[in-house]
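Researcher: Here's a chain I'd like modeled. Treat it as a single chain, no partners, no ligands.
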Amino acid sequence: MSVWNGETRRIYMQEVGMRDGFQAERSFVATHEKIALIDALSKTGVAKIEVTAFVSPQAIPALRDAEIVLREIERAPNVVYSALVPNVRGAERAIDACADELNLVISASESHNLSNLRMTRAQSFNGLRQVASIAHGACLPVNISLSCAFGCPIEGDVPESCVMSWCQRFIDEAGAAGVTLCDTTGMAHPGQVVRLTEAFIARWPDVELSLHFHNTRGMGLANVLAAIDAGAVRFDASLGGMGGCPYAPGASGNVCSEEIVHALDAMGYDTHVDLAALIDAARRLPALIGHDTPSQIVKAGRRLDLHPPPADFTAIRERALQRDMPHLHKN
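Model: Modeled as a single isolated chain. Structure tokens:
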């Protein structure tokens, strides 16, 4: 599974916890702590970091320091530093702060788009097309994150034809260089993931496709592996498994960065990520956000992180060997 055309399969990990995770937190993470954590993530080998979102401070106060964070991070040469922008003003701010890429969000579901963005999909598209034009004028690539591509918590299943139609509009009319299919509330399942991934790659082989899964129903890793089987190579994930969605009450967050890297490394995929460094970064989170994270790798360690034997192990072994002594004498 990990070999593709005779070569080790390269998988690109894209960290979204600094935006998708922090925006869901009640406590404000200090600006210098955000910058230090992003600098640490830059050294792990991830391909992209979604640094922040240029949104109204009233709407998302946790990211009110977007300009400072994006300007003051230490940039690694092989990392793309992306920013989510909802409108023209957000795009102007992100460009001024030297974002490498603008990430625009719309939902494949009309009900979710109205609930989440307070606009119809047509209204969102018209606004985002203007944002894309500004980005192209600044020679910046645009990525479209299509929320609820695998199901809507209000409407249920979203037809594949609807998902493909919105992808086509953004690729053809807004010049999107990349598309992220988002499992916003964790409704995706592997069979569905395979069908949608294969359909997208067959139709737009030259467009950069990313998959964004949540672990709401425990199928996050299974969906990542299904997407890899279908040809995908780029995945969003969140440090510590932070994140969530207000329309999936009680839901866990995004798939966990260190858990996905741990699994893929064990299976022989090439993630280019220093797992130990990634785990060290994840261990910083509880002190920053004020609570534990879902990460099982932080709790249990890697599969070959061994433990010392019991304190009385030598005595146990000696007693066990003594039980064999009468048998040896008889022989």
